[in-house]
Design brief:
- By secondary structure, the protein is α/β, with parallel strands linked by helices.
- The protein has one domain.
- It has two helices and seven strands; from the N terminus they run βββαβαβββ.
Length: 99
């Protein structure tokens, strides 16, 4: 997997990452087990970057990632570089997103 350095001194991230909204049934029914298989396959291919947000499935995306990492033992903190967003809110009545 091709890696690219983030800035001049930052970590080396895989050129391809995982979009974790897919862990939340947004694109179709899925399970935590299937999402864990995706993360395992990604690691096997050299992917080390996950993009998530607290609004993906109402926090489900981050829960699924956390449950996967919890099973990885001591190496769990070095497997992925996780990009997230915060402060995104959705109006429950209109569905409109705002910061």
């Amino acid at each position: 997997m091709q890696k690219r350095q983030l800035g001049k001194t930052g970590p080396h991230l895989s050129a391809i990452g995982i979009g974790a909204m897919s862990f939340t049934d947004f694109y179709g029914k899925t399970s935590a087990a299937e999402s864990h298989q995706v993360m395992t396959a990604a690691l096997d291919l050299g992917v080390n970057h996950i993009d998530t947000a607290n609004v993906y499935g109402g926090g489900l995306s981050e829960t699924v990632i956390g449950s996967f990492l919890a099973k990885q033992g001591a190496q769990k903190t070095s497997l992925f570089h996780i990009a997230t967003k915060a402060g995104i809110a959705v109006d429950k009545e209109s569905g409109r997103r705002y910061i």
